Amino acid sequence: xxxxxxxxxxxxxxxxxxxxxQDCEVKESVGKIxxxxxxxxxxxxxxxxxxxILGLSEKNGFRPAKGFDAxxxxxRLQTIGDLMTPVLRPEIFIFPFEDAQVIVMRILPVALNQRxxxxxxxxxxxxxxxxxxxxxxxxxxxxxxxxxxARQQPRYDVxxxxxxxxxxxxxxxxxxxxxxxxxxxxxxxxKMQRDEILQRLGAVAWVGNRxxxxxxxxLAAGIFPQQFFPRLNVTFTVxxxxxxxxxxxxxxxxxxxxxxxxxxxxxxxxxxDFLKKNMRTGALIDGALRKDVTDYPLVAFRExxxxxxxxxxxxxxxxxxxxxxxxxxxSLEILNPGGLYGAASLDETVTGISATRxxxxxxxxxxxxxxxxxGRQGFVIENRxxxxxxxxxxxTQSLMPPxxxxxxxxxxxxxxxxxxxTNSEKHPLHREQLAEGILQMLRxxxxxxxxxxxxxxxxxxxxIATILNDLIAKDAVERxxxxxxxxxRFRIKN
Length: 494
What we know:
Elements: H1 7-17, E1 24-27, H2 37-45, E2 50-54, E3 56-57, E4 63-64, H3 70-76, E5 84-85, E6 91-97, E7 100-107, E8 118-119, H4 124-127, E9 129-132, E10 135-138, H5 141-149, H6 171-184, H7 186-189, H8 194-201, E11 204-207, E12 210-213, H9 215-221, E13 234-238, E14 256-260, H10 264-278, E15 281-286, E16 289-294, H11 298-311, E17 323-327, E18 331-337, H12 346-351, H13 359-366, E19 369-371, E20 377-379, H14 387-397, E21 404-407, E22 411-417, H15 423-426, H16 431-443, H17 450-457, H18 461-473, E23 477-479, E24 490-492
Parallel strand pairs: 1-2, 13-17
Antiparallel strand pairs: 2-7, 3-4, 5-8, 6-7, 9-10, 11-12, 13-14, 15-16, 17-18, 18-22, 19-20, 21-22, 23-24
Helix pairs in contact: 9-13, 11-14, 16-18
């Protein structure tokens, strides 16, 4: 067996939970191979792989099944993989266990570009399964279509939209894209006209005798893409608890919600603002100075949302679903329709290896201008294939755990856990530290109000006022206005 298998430990686990598990299925198989075994092979092959143990009785506490003939069943299993498309070659072994014999099968996952693996006699739509908890769930037609789609490059992002006109695109954005690609490829594109370049980039296409936007063109530079595709937007919902489940003692199903429309660059900005509005801002103390920190790094959030909008499913079926952002009390989840595309896997996304479902849209976004949170002029996508790496790096720099990635044929999600409060947030600065911090801030500016000093230090106004009075008494600080002036400010005393 290519991977060690501790049969005793696995069966002890099964006995403890009293049921099959996500990675292990038990079947009695007394006298024959169960008809559902091929369903299980499909489920494990379409997921993360798994183990099948034959010869145990679940109803009898996972004890050896009476009458199980390991040698006979073993021989019959030699060709069971031939019943699958693509053909499977599971590893099959006989193990001794509690004065009996059981059979252990190991099923490896098939490559993403070979899925779905299905029971040949049932066909892909009836014979494709996925593991769900302790059982096998038949894939939906939508999930089968998405898996089959990965066998060839989708072209939905370059689909012309006849109902739209060039007037539905931001001219300045298109001009910026053209200028960028000319600068990057002067030998190839330098002498081409604007519309020809946009056509070759997949932003526009000919329909009859006129140019019209493509789906990708609308998403990258459209004025209001949702006029043509109402669900190609983002829903952002803030929940009071750790899940969507409503607390019976709380009448509020959600605290805040919004639908974000516009092009992808506009959605990114709107989502950022909504997140800032609904998350906690704390402070890290460096010496006597306060540095604002948020529950979730904005860099990680932007990369995760770009990833969702760039790689989501834009097929006709997928256009009925939205990208979802769910802000819970302890986490932030970004969910997009359509799982990982092509040969990409969860492990490979962590290393920067990825396959792109929407190649033309991705290239457009590489040249679409965007201003980040620091006011830096850049582009929507700047680190192609390294989005997950950037997210992990940003979280690490904020002393936060790596994101939780979940993938299925129908959806992909990134979940970030909320930042924990630092000791400096839990324990306020001593008055001496605050006094030194106030002096340092006043040395760096002509004057400051009590409100400004409170915002920068993290202390309340009353504490700041008390410290200022002490500093005034020591001739270190002076008022700029009469004692009770509403315009009062403070400065270093020369």
